[in-house]
Backbone:
């Protein structure tokens, strides 16, 4: 098993994929905690569909995918946030409206340009072969920006996540920090889509946060645990993909599901032990 790892990293495309994937996994896990607690987790799924449409548009325009996807997905993130807060169309309805519309537009563009070929599968389910050097350098730079902004505004994001009403009462510009969360999420979705695909990228946001919440209750502990789970699951998924020739994105999601099930089992056993201890003490 361990001798396979040096063999894997002798391939340059795997080194590129792991470098970008590890950074994106950390970014997604950190943001995922806030998104899940604020019940915005489906925004990640909606933005990934918008990303698919923007990638299709970039293909039709014969331009670099990230140059189109980044501004389009960021604009969609702000639109979703505004619709969720102020529009009569709220929550999951707003996400469904934009995501299905963007997906339909993307399919139409591809069918009228390159045709429904293997590129569609790469967009939908990801491919580690699509990362070139320019994508890697840009992805690393943008991932670092996401991490730096998250660390700099950590306390503000914490306040907005747990009690937005109280944060607003103290004079904090909660709208600005909600927009920051949407902006960072949009960047992370675009960066991760190339490897994970439009259908699977939201799993990097949801699963690590949900898994860590099974065992930890403090925001900092959940955030750190989510980042560790995310990068471990991504690395394990790549190894499984290399050994068994399975799709990378699907392999990563499968590992995340297994980890979630393990953490849920540990939580159940711990709660049962606490209940049994309480009963014994009361009967004593």
Residues:
């Amino acid at each position: 098993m361990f001798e396979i790892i040096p063999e894997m990293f002798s391939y340059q495309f795997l080194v590129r994929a792991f470098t970008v994937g590890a950074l994106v996994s950390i970014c997604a896990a950190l943001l995922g905690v806030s998104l899940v607690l604020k019940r915005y987790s489906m925004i990640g799924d909606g933005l990934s569909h918008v990303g698919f449409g923007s990638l299709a548009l970039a293909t039709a325009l014969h331009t670099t995918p990230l140059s189109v996807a980044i501004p389009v997905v960021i604009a969609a993130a702000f639109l979703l946030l505004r619709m969720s807060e102020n529009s009569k169309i709220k929550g999951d309805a707003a996400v469904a409206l934009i995501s299905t519309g963007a997906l339909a537009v993307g399919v139409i563009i591809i069918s009228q340009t390159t045709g429904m070929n293997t590129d569609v599968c790469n967009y939908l389910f990801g491919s580690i072969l699509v990362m070139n050097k320019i994508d890697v350098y840009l992805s690393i730079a943008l991932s670092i920006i996401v991490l730096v902004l998250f660390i700099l505004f950590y306390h503000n994001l914490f306040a907005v996540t747990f009690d937005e009403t109280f944060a607003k009462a103290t004079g904090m510009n909660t709208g600005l920090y909600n927009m920051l969360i949407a902006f960072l999420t949009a960047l992370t979705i675009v960066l991760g889509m190339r490897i994970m695909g439009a259908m699977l990228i939201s799993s990097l946001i949801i699963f690590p946060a949900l898994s860590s919440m099974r065992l930890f209750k403090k925001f900092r502990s959940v955030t750190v645990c989510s980042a560790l789970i995310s990068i471990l699951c991504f690395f394990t998924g790549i190894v499984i993909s290399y050994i068994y020739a399975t799709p990378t994105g699907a392999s990563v999601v499968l590992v995340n599901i297994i980890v979630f099930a393990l953490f849920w089992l540990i939580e159940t056993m711990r709660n049962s032990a606490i209940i049994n201890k309480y009963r014994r003490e009361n009967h004593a």
About this structure: The radius of gyration is 20 Å.
